[in-house]
Write a structure and sequence with these properties.
The chain is about 70% helix and about 5% strand. The protein has helices at about 40-65, 70-100, 105-135, 145-170, 190-225, 235-265, 275-295, 300-310, and strands at about 1-5, 15-20. A hairpin with a 5-residue loop joins strand 1 (about 1-5) and strand 2. Belongs to the G-protein coupled receptor 1 family.
Length: about 325
């Protein structure tokens, strides 16, 4: 007898004891488990709680503030909603794994988390596209065409996320074929490979767009400096700050998700579950960092927070309105 971890629907492992041939396997069992709480699951549950609280504040601010209805804030709201659902999913996953043992609930949980995290990553891509459009088509950005484009991106984002989340629930799972299981049971290897390939595609597109955004930012800053007939130190500082911000955004996203995405492709069911935990946890942290990068740094959201929570906003405090092109 040896201790091994079992991954529920999302990739979140659950500790239990099972007989094996010397290899640690990640498997969901419908039998009553030995009641021992895995510390990794506790950490994931705590992470889910923090994620849910952070993003619930952002959703509340955007929902209750009429001024935050521009395309940029609609996309930020979509991201916060997806991360909020992901956090709730991590909490429910912990509760269901240690309270209710059911294959049906496992499939629903995995579908919910797959849909939530897919919507989160897709919303990040939509925000990147929006930032690029705000720079590339600056003169026509605030047109009805842009609003229609944003709405279409949201429909595609949530439509694709819902479809991917329904796949394991509708039958694309390995509950009846253990040999086809991935490191995230009950997802099959082919299903997890599809999700990983989709992430790599999104990451490449985001990287390409942010490189183009960086070039546009540098070119615009250089043109402004030339119009002023000199290249001042402030020009260098502003350009460096913009490039650094872009590097932080794409670097944080890559560092959070790439390890788990790569391990989903190269990992095997017989590998120790600690590898899955160690790569999954940073991926969940991305949903914890997103509201800090995309929401709380925005001055209009900061002002709305003063109004919503303090009711003591002073008009003399200066807040500069920002556009998606502000990086």
């Amino acid at each position: 007898m040896n201790e091994s971890g079992a991954l529920n629907g999302t990739g979140v492992p659950v500790a239990r004891i099972q007989a094996s041939d010397g290899n640690s396997s990640l498997e969901l069992s419908s039998q009553l488990p030995v009641f021992a709480i895995n510390p990794w699951d506790v950490v994931l549950c705590i992470s889910g709680t923090i994620i849910a609280c952070e993003n619930a504040i952002v959703v509340a601010i955007i929902f209750y503030t009429p001024n935050l209805r521009t395309p940029m804030f609609v996309l930020i709201g979509s991201l916060a909603t997806a991360d909020l659902l992901a956090g709730v999913g991590l909490i429910l996953n912990f509760v269901f794994q240690y309270v209710i043992q059911s294959e049906t609930i496992s499939l629903i949980t995995v579908g919910f988390l797959v849909a939530s995290f897919t919507a989160s990553v897709s919303s990040l891509l939509a925000i990147t596209v929006d930032r690029y459009l705000s720079l590339y088509n600056a003169l026509t950005y605030y047109s009805e065409k842009t609003v229609l484009c944003i709405h279409m991106m949201l429909i595609v984002t949530w439509g694709v996320s819902l479809c991917l989340g329904l796949l394991p629930v509708l039958g694309w799972n390995c509950l009846d074929d253990y040999s086809s299981c991935s490191i995230v049971r009950p997802l099959t290897k082919s299903n997890l490979t599809l999700l990983s390939a989709s992430f790599f595609l999104v990451f490449i597109i985001m990287l390409h767009l942010y490189i183009k955004i960086c070039k546009i930012v540098c070119r615009h800053a250089h043109q402004i400096a030339l119009q002023q007939h000199f290249l001042s130190a402030s020009h260098y500082v502003a350009t460096k700050k913009g490039v650094s911000t872009l590097a932080i955004i794409i670097g944080t996203f890559g560092a959070s998700w790439l390890p788990f995405a790569i391990y989903c492709v190269v990992g095997d069911l017989d590998y120790p579950s600690v590898y899955t935990y160690a790569t999954l946890l940073p991926a969940t942290y991305n949903s914890m960092i997103n509201p800090i990068i995309y929401a709380y740094r925005n001055q209009e959201i900061q002002r709305a927070m003063w109004v919503l929570f303090c009711g003591c906003f002073q008009s003399k405090v200066s807040f500069r309105s920002r556009s998606p092109s502000d990086v």
